[in-house]
Amino acid sequence: MTDRAILRLLLTTDTHLTPRYPHRELPAELWDRIDAADVVVHAGDWMAPALLDAFEQRSRLLVACWGNNDGDDLRARLPETAVADVGGVRLAVTHETGAADGRERRCDARFGPDGDTPVDVLVFGHSHIPWDSTTPGGVRLLNPGSPTERRRQPACTYMTAEVRGGVLRDVARHDLPAAARRT
């Protein structure tokens, strides 16, 4: 992918940009992080093909999937689950993992060492609730929340991380300031 010793990742999901919400836009802080990242991960619910176009133009590497609210145009361009090797870390991104109760067990069954798609890290979305846990099988589960629609959360969010020496490190959740969000 690249010979850089450190890869900077930007993780986001559930951007929900659509003509239905003409006031909603991605915060400038998120665009700045996208521009600076070596790898951008988006876990679906784009809702606007033009947003995918913008991410593709501004990302050095985009690892992305479609979400339940994405139409046929986005589903034709994106997989339901994307898998990539990112600096020695096997990463998958999918939109839905089901209810929080039992999530680690379900994700281990599919993405753990004995699953159909073994990975080190699974990035997912759908709930708009930030999540960071590790399954008993060792899969790191990350949901960056939503940068545009906080729902019942105290803030809109996204995540950053680094890959160094084939290991995911320095995962951080970022709360967007109230002025940056319009939900």
Mean pLDDT: 92
N-to-C SSE string, H for helix and E for strand? EHEHEHEEHEEEEE
Q: Could you tell me the number of beta strands?
A: 10
> Which percent range fits the helix content?
10-25%
Ranges where pLDDT stays below 50 over 5 or more residues in a row are none
Q: Return the CATH class.
A: Alpha Beta
CATH topology term: Purple Acid Phosphatase, chain A, domain 2
Termini Cα gap:
37 Å
Sum up the overall morphology in one term. Answer: globular
The CATH architecture would be 4-Layer Sandwich
Radius of gyration: 15 Å
* CATH homology group: Metallo-dependent phosphatases
Structural class: alpha/beta
Walk me through what this model shows.
- The chain is of the alpha/beta class and 183 residues long.
- The protein has one domain: Purple Acid Phosphatase, chain A, domain 2 (4-Layer Sandwich), CATH 3.60.21.10.
- It is built from 4 helices and 10 strands; from the N terminus they run E-H-E-H-E-H-E-E-H-E-E-E-E-E.
- The chain has helices spanning 28-36, 49-58, 72-77, 103-111; strands at residues 6-12, 39-42, 62-64, 81-86, 89-94, 121-123, 131-134, 140-143, 157-164, 167-175.
- The strands form 2 sheets. A 5-stranded mixed sheet has the order 3-2-1-9-10, covered by helices on one side. The protein has a 5-stranded mixed sheet with strand order 4-5-6-8-7, covered by helices on one side.
Quick overview of this protein structure:
Helices cover 19% and strands 30% of the residues. The chain has helices at 28-36, 49-58, 72-77, 103-111, and strands at 6-12, 39-42, 62-64, 81-86, 89-94, 121-123, 131-134, 140-143, 157-164, 167-175.
